[in-house]
Amino acid sequence: MGKTNRKYSYPDSGGHFGDFGGRYVSETLMPALIELQKAYEEASADETFRDEIDYYLKQYVGRPTPLYYARAMTESLGGAKIYLKREDLAHTGAHKINNTIGQGVLCERMGKQRIIAETGAGQHGVATATVAALLNKECVIYMGEEDTKRQELNVFRMKLLGAEVRPVVSGTKTLKDAMNEAMRDWVTNVRNTFYIIGSVAGPHPYPMMVRDFQSVIGRETMEQVLSAEGKLPDTLVACVGGGSNAMGLFFPFVGGVGVRKIGVEAAGHGLESGLHSATITAGSVGVLHGSKTYLLQDADGQVQGAHSVAAGLDYPGVGPEHSYFQDAGEVEYVSVTDEEAISAFSFLSEVEGIIPALETAHAVAHVRKIASSMSPEQVIVICLSGRGDKDIHTASSFM
Amino acid sequence: MGRIEEKFRELHEQNKAALICYVTAGDPDIDFTEQVIYRMEASGVDMVEIGIPFSDPMADGPVIQAASERALANSTSLSDVLSLVRRIRSRLDIPVILFGYYNPFFSYGTERFARDAREAGADGVLVVDLPPEEAGELSVHVEREGLDRIFLLAPTSTEERIEMVSENASGFIYVVSVTGVTGARPDMDYDIEDLVGRIKRRSELPVGVGFGVSSARQATAIASFSDAVIVGSALVRIIEGGGKEKQEVLGKISSFTEELSAACQR
Q: What is the distance between the alpha carbons of residues A16 and A171, in angstroms, rounded to a whole number?
């Protein structure tokens, strides 16, 4: 695919993207996932549901977010024309709110009173706590103990928003374990609880649902680039941990529109060091958190801890649709190191006056490598997925 | 007839529910697991469930999570568990069920796993995060090798799902007694009797109840309406508390399982 215009129709009714995805969960959750899928399908067909989400996205989140022509960055790199899709300007400072608004409105529609979520960097936790406050729901956020330390600011924000933050001390004490713990809570409280998964990961229907809610990024981008440049962009670049901002940007450009799409994973200390989060670039196929996808795992099928300076990329799995895109050749996946990301973090701050999240800085770092080899007529769009205030502490320890 | 079916028939004649006991392989090491299994059989346990440790045991409570971590600390793998089964099979009469999460099986290779499990002498396979919808690939091989495919049903399961599991399962159906993770609980939801009844109306297979069973009193109650009582975390907790006193732990396991076995007599 990629050259044809065939209609892309994944996932199938069981949530499979080719060989990937599915619902690998214990029986207790199967009825809940089926109920959620039905509720989502019904809601999607209902105009009032879409109108309500659009209303919040416009009036509460501040969409559409700008597509900013980064003149200074473009001139500094000397090549392709670079635009930044400013998700950092969305309410709460990252793209995560697009999804939590969608799932929050769905939760309200399903009459559930309690919301839970996992979080890594804390951006999804903050976006969930925000929506829970907005909709007056009880809210519990699971966060790896390690992450609560490196993202103190976001822990405080979640508490201020009325959420309870539960530090997770099992396993690697990061995002993967926070997700295990959230699943255990959901299994236990499934009758009254809505689990808002923050990435295009997890069992069906989550990867599809989160993709749909985040696709607003790509739809706006398409319209904005067409209006600014009179053509589609040549290259889209976004960071990939679980992969929700990348999926949101890429999805409307999938299926033969001739736009190159590059997902940037975290190479941490370098792929050869073994300390990285480059799931697609360096992993193998397995099953984690309810779906079949690329994973970091050992020879016995035990999931390995990931590493990245960016807590939001520190995840040994990736959304199953990205795994499909990798095998289908729809998207290219590359990786950049902690060091390159930190350097890009400083670069964008100095050159454009925009402090990106460390996650986002991975996408910026890759564009620094490719922009000069492209011509000034070509257009790159970077998904500036979040702002970097939360990372000042981490970044300062490297400078 | 497989060992599992045979065991249920034998117990049915004795008017007794089967006592199925769980142990995490490699907790704290594989040799000790072997000793635990022999003790269990000697104390009247009717089938043993051997847990394959996994890095991300999403359906387990803190007790079995910790057991998994202890087992992984000495790198216990699915291969080690199959070697253990091969070793114990000649001395052991009771059925052996392999219990785990899908990724280690998938990583080992489903066809190779089914063949090796049958050769080692295992009798059934239960993969917690593999509902019938996703079980196809493993089930095909497991069935071809003549092993039983054990599936879970839960208090949240609909009639439709009871039907689907009944069509796909063999050996017995495992009923999760609570909406929650594994772990001993002082009190249980006795609406579970109603669920067992609904399953029995749709399936000829024996039905076992587990998750949360921690006392002889609970075992007696469950034995009155189900074909098997399944105990896990309460036993793992004895192992966890044992430290270096292995003989003492084995003694406690013997006395607890003897008590549970007596409670399964109707």
A: 28
